[in-house]
C-alpha cells in the first residue's frame, strides 16, 4: 500500500515539471487528498525524494508542497532550502555596494520586477500585497520593469527561493503557486533578494538559540551553519520573517532543530508579516531617510511625497504615482 502511495505521489510531483496549467493545480489537490486519506506526512515525501538524490525542503505540515525544491528542474544550486547560489559571485557573501540595489535621485531604492503570466490575477494581487509593507515603511520600491538590465523575474518555479542581494541581469525569485504566495513567504524571498540572510545563521546566534544537531539530517547540516553576517547593530529577532521554524528540516517529524534560549517557549518561524526589526534593517542597510508627507487635495486618491529640493513640476508629477512614504 505504501509503495503504491509513494508511486502515485512521485508520478504526480514529476508531472509538475511537465506542464503548467489547470491540470497541474488539480493534480496537487488530488495528491493532498491521497496523503490525507492514507495518513501521509511531509516526512514521507521528504524521505522518498532524498533517496532519489533530490534536495528537499519541508518545514512543516502547512504549505509543505511548496517547500520541495528539485535541482534537476531548477537552474540553480539551493542551500538553506531557499537560497540560490549566484552564478556571478559567492551568494553567501553580500557585502559590497554591488550586492545592493541602487538608490535613485529621489532617495528611493527602485527594484524592477516582472511577474510571470502563469499566475492568476488573484495570485499577482497577493504578491503585490506582500510588497506594500516595503512601500509603506521603507524606501524600497518594487517597480514594474521598463527595460532595466537588472531586475527580479518572479516566477512559479519549483519551490520558494531567491539569490542573496542584487545578482545582475535577470534574477529569478521563485514563488510557486503551490503554497509560496503567503504574505510572509513572499516577503521572506524578497528580503533575500534585497541582501538578507536567515536570522538563525547570524554570527551571534548561539547566544539566542540552540541548534539541535542530533535532530538534523547530515544532508541539511549546512543549512544551520553560522554565517559571517552584518547584523547592522540590531538585536536578534525571534519574530523575524527570516527565522527558520522550530522543526524545520527535522529528521523526525515534530522534533526541534532550533530551540530558543533561555526561554524555549518563544515562538519562532512566523510567516505572517515582516517584523519591526526586519523593517529597521532594510532602512539601515539602504540608508532610508525620513521624508515629509504632503497630502493631496481630496480629489486625488494617493498621497504625495515632495521634499523641499523637489519642487520642480516634473518631479511632482513623478511622485504623484508613488505610494506614500512614511518610513522611519
Automatic annotation (TrEMBL):
<dbReference type="InterPro" id="IPR034039">
    <property type="entry name" value="ZnMP_hatching_enz"/>
</dbReference>
<protein>
    <recommendedName>
        <fullName>Metalloendopeptidase</fullName>
        <ecNumber>3.4.24.-</ecNumber>
    </recommendedName>
</protein>
<keyword id="KW-0732">Signal</keyword>
<feature type="domain" description="Peptidase M12A">
    <location>
        <begin position="90"/>
        <end position="289"/>
    </location>
</feature>
<keyword id="KW-0325">Glycoprotein</keyword>
<feature type="binding site">
    <location>
        <position position="198"/>
    </location>
    <ligand>
        <name>Zn(2+)</name>
    </ligand>
</feature>
<keyword id="KW-0865">Zymogen</keyword>
<feature type="signal peptide">
    <location>
        <begin position="1"/>
        <end position="19"/>
    </location>
</feature>
<keyword id="KW-0968">Cytoplasmic vesicle</keyword>
<dbReference type="InterPro" id="IPR006026">
    <property type="entry name" value="Peptidase_Metallo"/>
</dbReference>
<keyword id="KW-0862">Zinc</keyword>
<keyword id="KW-0482">Metalloprotease</keyword>
<keyword id="KW-0378">Hydrolase</keyword>
<dbReference type="GO" id="GO:0006508">
    <property type="term" value="P:proteolysis"/>
</dbReference>
<keyword id="KW-0645">Protease</keyword>
<dbReference type="Pfam" id="PF01400">
    <property type="entry name" value="Astacin"/>
</dbReference>
<keyword id="KW-1015">Disulfide bond</keyword>
<feature type="active site">
    <location>
        <position position="189"/>
    </location>
</feature>
<feature type="binding site">
    <location>
        <position position="188"/>
    </location>
    <ligand>
        <name>Zn(2+)</name>
    </ligand>
</feature>
<dbReference type="GO" id="GO:0042588">
    <property type="term" value="C:zymogen granule"/>
</dbReference>
<keyword id="KW-0479">Metal-binding</keyword>
<dbReference type="InterPro" id="IPR001506">
    <property type="entry name" value="Peptidase_M12A"/>
</dbReference>
<dbReference type="InterPro" id="IPR024079">
    <property type="entry name" value="MetalloPept_cat_dom_sf"/>
</dbReference>
<dbReference type="GO" id="GO:0008270">
    <property type="term" value="F:zinc ion binding"/>
</dbReference>
<feature type="binding site">
    <location>
        <position position="192"/>
    </location>
    <ligand>
        <name>Zn(2+)</name>
    </ligand>
</feature>
<dbReference type="GO" id="GO:0004222">
    <property type="term" value="F:metalloendopeptidase activity"/>
</dbReference>
Amino acid at each position: 500500500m505504501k509503495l503504491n502511495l509513494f508511486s502515485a505521489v512521485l508520478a504526480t510531483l514529476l508531472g509538475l515539471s511537465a506542464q503548467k496549467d489547470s491540470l497541474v493545480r488539480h493534480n496537487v489537490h488530488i495528491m493532498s487528498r491521497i496523503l490525507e486519506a492514507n495518513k501521509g506526512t511531509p516526512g514521507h515525501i521528504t524521505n522518498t525524494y532524498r533517496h532519489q538524490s533530490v534536495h528537499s525542503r519541508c518545514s512543516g505540515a502547512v504549505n509543505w508542497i511548496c517547500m520541495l525544491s528539485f535541482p534537476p528542474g531548477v537552474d540553480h544550486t539551493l542551500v538553506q532550502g531557499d537560497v540560490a547560489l549566484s552564478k556571478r559571485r559567492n551568494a553567501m557573501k553580500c557585502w559590497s555596494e554591488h550586492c545592493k540595489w541602487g538608490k535613485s535621485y529621489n532617495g528611493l531604492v527602485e527594484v524592477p520586477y516582472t511577474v510571470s503570466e502563469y499566475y492568476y490575477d488573484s495570485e499577482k494581487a497577493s504578491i503585490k500585497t506582500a510588497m506594500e509593507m516595503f512601500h509603506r515603511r521603507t524606501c524600497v520600491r518594487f517597480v514594474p520593469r521598463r527595460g532595466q538590465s537588472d531586475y527580479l523575474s518572479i516566477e512559479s518555479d519549483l519551490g520558494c527561493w531567491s539569490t542573496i542581494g542584487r545578482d545582475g541581469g535577470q534574477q529569478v525569485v521563485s514563488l510557486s503557486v503551490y503554497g509560496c504566495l503567503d504574505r510572509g513567504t513572499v516577503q521572506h524571498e524578497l528580503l533575500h533578494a534585497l541582501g538578507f540572510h536567515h536570522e538563525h545563521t547570524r554570527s551571534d546566534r548561539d547566544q539566542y538559540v540552540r541548534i539541535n544537531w542530533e535532530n538534523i539530517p547530515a544532508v541539511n547540516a549546512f543549512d544551520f551553519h553560522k554565517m559571517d553576517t552584518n547584523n547592522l547593530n540590531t538585536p536578534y529577532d525571534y519574530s523575524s520573517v527570516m527565522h527558520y521554524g522550530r522543526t524545520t528540516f527535522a529528521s523526525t517529524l515534530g522534533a526541534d532543530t532550533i530551540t530558543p534560549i533561555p526561554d524555549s517557549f518563544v515562538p519562532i518561524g512566523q510567516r505572517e508579516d515582516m517584523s519591526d526589526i526586519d523593517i529597521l534593517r532594510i532602512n539601515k542597510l539602504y540608508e532610508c531617510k525620513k521624508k515629509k508627507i504632503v497630502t493631496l487635495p481630496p480629489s486625488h486618491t494617493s498621497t504625495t511625497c515632495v521634499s523641499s529640493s523637489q519642487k520642480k513640476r516634473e518631479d511632482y508629477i513623478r511622485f504623484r504615482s508613488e505610494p506614500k512614504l512614511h518610513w522611519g
